[in-house]
UniProtKB/TrEMBL annotation:
Annotated ranges, domain N-acetyltransferase: 2-179
Name assigned to this protein: N-alpha-acetyltransferase 20
EC number: 2.3.1.254
Keyword tags: Acyltransferase, Cytoplasm, Nucleus, Transferase
Catalysed reactions, semicolon-separated: N-terminal L-methionyl-L-glutamyl-[protein] + acetyl-CoA = N-terminal N(alpha)-acetyl-L-methionyl-L-glutamyl-[protein] + CoA + H(+); N-terminal L-methionyl-L-asparaginyl-[protein] + acetyl-CoA = N-terminal N(alpha)-acetyl-L-methionyl-L-asparaginyl-[protein] + CoA + H(+); N-terminal L-methionyl-L-aspartyl-[protein] + acetyl-CoA = N-terminal N(alpha)-acetyl-L-methionyl-L-aspartyl-[protein] + CoA + H(+); N-terminal L-methionyl-L-glutaminyl-[protein] + acetyl-CoA = N-terminal N(alpha)-acetyl-L-methionyl-L-glutaminyl-[protein] + CoA + H(+)
Primary location group: cytoplasm
Domain of life: Eukaryota
Protein family membership: Belongs to the acetyltransferase family. ARD1 subfamily.
Database matches in InterPro entries: Acyl_CoA_acyltransferase, GNAT_dom, NatB_acetyltransferase_subunit
Pfam family, one: Acetyltransf_1
Localization per Swiss-Prot or TrEMBL: Cytoplasm; Nucleus
Organism in which the protein naturally occurs: Pampusana beccarii (Western bronze ground-dove)
Function: Catalytic subunit of the NatB complex which catalyzes acetylation of the N-terminal methionine residues of peptides beginning with Met-Asp, Met-Glu, Met-Asn and Met-Gln. Proteins with cell cycle functions are overrepresented in the pool of NatB substrates. Required for maintaining the structure and function of actomyosin fibers and for proper cellular migration.
Amino acid sequence: MTTLRAFTCDDLFRFNNIFSSAFSLTSTAPQYGIPFYLQYLAHWPEYFIVAEAPGGELMGYSDCGWCVIPKLMLCLFTVMGKAEGSVAREEWHGHVTALSVAPEFRRLGLAAKLMELLEEISEKKGGFFVDLFVRVSNQVAVNMYKQLGYSVYRTVLEYYSASSGEPDEDAYDMRKALSRDTEKKSIIPLPHPVRPEDIE
């Protein structure tokens, strides 16, 4: 049975070094250090959720997915986010920083459940919407988010930095209005793309 729980400092020492070494060979994987995770734990602990499978597969976490790591006895699925924006301008919202589910545990509703929990937290915090950024090329994720009620608010040109001489990749800024946004103003799509420096 899967257990949903808050991410703890102990989790950092259980897998952060493993992630760094496991993904150092992957050019598209983000390299998050302990300070990055501690920032989220200190400022938005309620937005950092782990789903733990007892006696699960041997794997580790990345924004881009998962990889098999020998001799780990734990399977982690995470969603991490934060609250940000301006209340006065009706832009106070929850933001999904990362959502990861192991490939062999996809299509079981775990991503939907983790997103639902993050949305509930954002509702309790008085958010107008929840947003996230996703690679335009990641149509599997884009379609999943659409099924969860998200829509494309805007395209952000060259949001993701490429490596190995590849061109930078565009992102969709996808949003889902919460109950506080009764007129759904937060999800009215922008008519033109923006650049990363134009994002507030």
